[in-house]
UniProtKB/TrEMBL annotation, chain A:
Belongs to the MinE family. Prevents the cell division inhibition by proteins MinC and MinD at internal division sites while permitting inhibition at polar sites. This ensures cell division at the proper site by restricting the formation of a division septum at the midpoint of the long axis of the cell. GO terms for biological process: cell division. It comes from Microvirga splendida. InterPro entries: MinE (IPR005527), MinE_sf (IPR036707). Keywords: Cell cycle, Cell division. The gene is minE. This is Cell division topological specificity factor.
UniProtKB/TrEMBL annotation, chain B:
Belongs to the ParA family. MinD subfamily. SUPFAM superfamilies: P-loop containing nucleoside triphosphate hydrolases. This is Septum site-determining protein MinD. The keyword S-adenosyl-L-methionine does not apply. Keywords: ATP-binding, Cell cycle, Cell division, Nucleotide-binding, Septation. InterPro entries: CobQ/CobB/MinD/ParA_Nub-bd_dom, MinD, MinD_FleN, P-loop_NTPase, ParA/MinD_ATPase. It comes from Microvirga splendida. Gene3D superfamilies: P-loop containing nucleotide triphosphate hydrolases. Interacts with MinC and FtsZ. Residues 5-224 form the CobQ/CobB/MinD/ParA nucleotide binding domain.
């Protein structure tokens, strides 16, 4: 709850709608349809295993998304490394 | 060779039939030969919105079953010469709406018209999937409201996976038609803004149809709004939409992909 919202007396419901939709649809786009999401699940598991060998990163800090385009498909791997770990091994 | 356009939404009551009638009439007014097909078997309404409810003799199912020729079933509009309507049947014989039958009807119409507009029923059942099956272009009708947006997202996923184009590895051109939009309420934060809907659904905007009493008034009179009150705000928005559809490649309205759509790319529904 920001100061801005406080002054607006909480009458605006649209931002809540927007946020709820974003969370919901991100989820639904992954589960509906099967097929591809299985592949993402396998990739996620194996990538996690590789990371775990070298870094102790919590599961929920690893985001794996697949984007199918007409000519190019992309696999996005977003790993958030906690400051504690990153601090121990500064970039060479 | 006609372009096949599907007007779809997932959710009911958002303005598919109203938009089909308005876009069809506007395209025909610009001189294009247009055939509109009502795919809502059992609950037809396009005939009523077009003011042709008493002229229905044969319907889509009759044509598919071979009881009537397509020429016999098409109803020519009395106001615009180049506009025709193929009504849905009013009986519940949905089983006769076959993949192969629909393909045959569309193939036959493709040679005679410039545009074939398929008015999809609500839902994601056979009527809806067959209405989008052969589409080159899709108009996704959405209200600025959570359930409509969720259903549109689902439909967009289906357009990307269940259509003939998708199966050939091509893309159906998708456009968002935001209907019943009240800019003042959006400004006050009571309903979602255009930008929010665009960012969430991440397909280009075709037009915004403002909430207006003129839409209902035209329906009451059995006229598409672009004919019934051509100077009203919704009619002007539909006319603008048609200009965009015709000059498609020239005007690219693709919005920049927002952070949300980059993070959560859409997958097949």
């Amino acid at each position: 709850m920001s100061l801005f919202n406080f002054f607006k007396r909480n009458t605006t419901s649209a931002p809540v709608a927007r946020e709820r939709l974003q969370v919901l649809l991100a989820h639904e786009r992954t589960i509906v349809g099967g097929g591809e999401s299985d592949l993402v699940a396998i990739l996620r598991e194996e990538i996690m295993a590789v990371i775990a060998k070298h870094l102790a990163v919590p599961q929920d800090k690893v985001q794996i998304k697949m984007d199918r385009g007409a000519s190019v498909s992309t696999l996005e791997v977003d790993i958030e490394i906690p400051a504690a770990i990153a601090g121990l091994r500064p970039a060479a | 060779m006609a372009k096949v356009l599907v007007v779809t939404s997932g959710k009911g009551g958002v303005g598919k039939t109203t938009s089909t009638a308005a876009l069809g009439a506007a395209l025909a007014q610009s001189g294009q030969k247009v055939a509109m097909i009502d795919f809502d078997v059992g609950l037809r309404n396009l005939d009523l919105i077009m003011g042709a409810e008493r002229r229905v003799v044969y319907d889509l199912i009759n044509v598919i079953k071979g009881d009537a020729k397509i020429e016999q079933a098409l109803i020519k509009d009395k106001r615009i010469e180049t506009l025709s309507l193929l009504p849905a049947s009013q009986t519940r014989d949905k089983d006769n709406l076959t993949d192969e039958g629909v393909a045959r009807v569309i193939e036959g119409l493709r040679e005679k018209f410039d545009w074939i507009i398929c008015d999809s029923p609500a839902g994601i059942e056979r009527g809806a999937t067959l209405a989008m099956r052969h589409a080159d272009v899709a108009v996704v009708v959405t209200n600025p409201e959570v359930s409509s947006i969720r259903d549109s997202d689902r439909i967009i996923g289906m357009l990307d996976s269940k259509t003939e184009k998708a199966e050939k590895g091509e893309q159906v051109e998708k456009h968002l038609l935001l209907t019943r939009y009240d800019a003042a309420r959006a400004q006050r934060g009571e309903i979602l803004k255009v930008e929010d809907v665009l960012e969430i659904l991440s397909i280009p905007l075709l037009a915004i149809i403002p909430e207006s009493t003129e839409v209902l008034r035209s329906s009451n009179l059995g006229a598409p709004v672009t004919l019934g009150s051509p100077n009203s705000a919704p009619a002007r928005a539909y006319l603008e939409a048609v200009r965009k559809l015709q000059g498609e490649t020239a005007v690219e309205v693709q919005k920049q992909r927002g952070l949300f759509s980059k993070l959560f790319a859409r997958r097949a529904a």
